[in-house]
Amino acid sequence: MTPSDYDYLRKLLKERSGLDLSAEKQYLVEGRLLPLARKAGVPGIPELVQKMKGGAQALTTEVVEAMTTNETFFFRDKIPFDYLKDFVLPALIKARAAKRVLRIWCAASSTGQEPYSIAMVLKETPALAGWRTEIIGTDLSQEVLEKSKAGLYSQFEVQRGLPIQMLVKYFKQNGEFWQINPDIRAMVQHKQLNLLQDFSHLGTFDVIFCRNVLIYFDQPTKTAIFERMSRIIEPDGVLVLGAAESVVGITNTFKPYPDRRGMYCPNTAGAAPRVAVSPVAAPKLAAAMR
After folding, report:
1. How many helices (H) and strands (E) does the chain have?
2. pLDDT at 287 over 70
3. What value does the mean pLDDT take over residues 184-195?
4. pLDDT tens-digit map of 255-267
5. What are the CA-CA distances from residue 244 to residues 71, 180, 216, 240, 263 (Å)?
6. Is pLDDT at 277 greater than 60 in this prediction?
7. Of 204, 194, 189, 176, whose CA–CA distance to 266 is shortest?
């Protein structure tokens, strides 16, 4: 790959997905795109770039998706899910007792292990019986969303982080694969979404999981995303980031929870104006929450 090819790809990925590749990440691009080049019938990345420059839009989309598909597994890092079960849900159940509605957004939900892990936590919470719960899983890649919708995972995938009792309780073996039960799949809605674009149409949320994705963005992009998230999270809502991510020094729209690593709450003193739902949109939003 020539320096000019790499510069072209870096600029493209930054514009299309927010991915901010440093100069020394050429090896990562080669590892992700060489298989795609072979699939496209060209010998290498320079030829792949030439096809993209020639207007191959579908190929360009595949390149962006190949570079932005990140690793995931069930109950990744465990601690955020323990906090959800032991701290976040009890507080929200008490605060939402009158409405009995709970909405959770998984940004960059990838192949579904994170939203389905959340769904299993909700299913294991007896106090939520009779509530309207909604989990929205969004990702830039339509390919990974289709895998998530199917809820079909290999033996290797279910062995990574998934407790054996959850596997037995919520999955059925399907040949060499395991498929998550229909009632758990039905708890998650899937939508294609680019975090660089407006997401106010999703409505407001009680909890936002946005883990291990903003780490790849530059600071101005992170700041803009945090500010837009602050407009669609409830004042007593919770933002959950990855272990290596933080809002500190990036935005004042959220502030850390004391002694809760990776958890943040809206900072009402520094928050951006909240999203307004028009009279026309309100019935649609209400219907989406049913």
Report:
1. 13, 10
2. no
3. 96
4. 998 788 899 999 9
5. 15, 29, 11, 12, 12
6. no
7. 204
For residue 120, what are the β-bridge partners?
A: none
Please, are residues 161 and 73 in contact by the beta-carbon 8 Å criterion? yes
Q: Considering the domain boundaries, does residue 241 fall inside one? A: yes
Pair 220, 158 in one domain: yes
**Residues 253 and 163 grouped into a single domain:** yes
Q: Which domain holds residue 255?
A: 79-288
For residue 285, pLDDT over 80 is answered with no
Query: What is the average pLDDT across 264-275?
Result: 66
Q: Which parts of the chain are beta strand (E)? A: 101-106, 132-139, 152-154, 171-174, 177-180, 188-192, 205-210, 233-241, 254-256, 263-266
pLDDT digits (tens, 9 = 90+) for 22-52: 777 788 888 888 888 888 888 888 999 998 8
- Kindly report whether the global pTM for this prediction surpasses the value 0.70: yes
Here the tokens at position 159 are 């062995």
* Domain shared by 87 and 54, yes or no: no
What CATH number does the domain containing 151 carry? 3.40.50.150
Based on the fold, state whether residues 64 and 92 are members of the same structural domain.
no
Whose CA is closest to 202, among 231, 179, 223, 178? 231
Asked if residue 73 belongs to a domain, the reply is no
Give CA–CA dist 196/213, Å, rounded: 12
Measured CA to CA, the distance from residue 113 to residue 11 in angstroms comes to: 30
Identify the bridge partners of residue 190 per DSSP, sorted by sequence position. Answer: 137
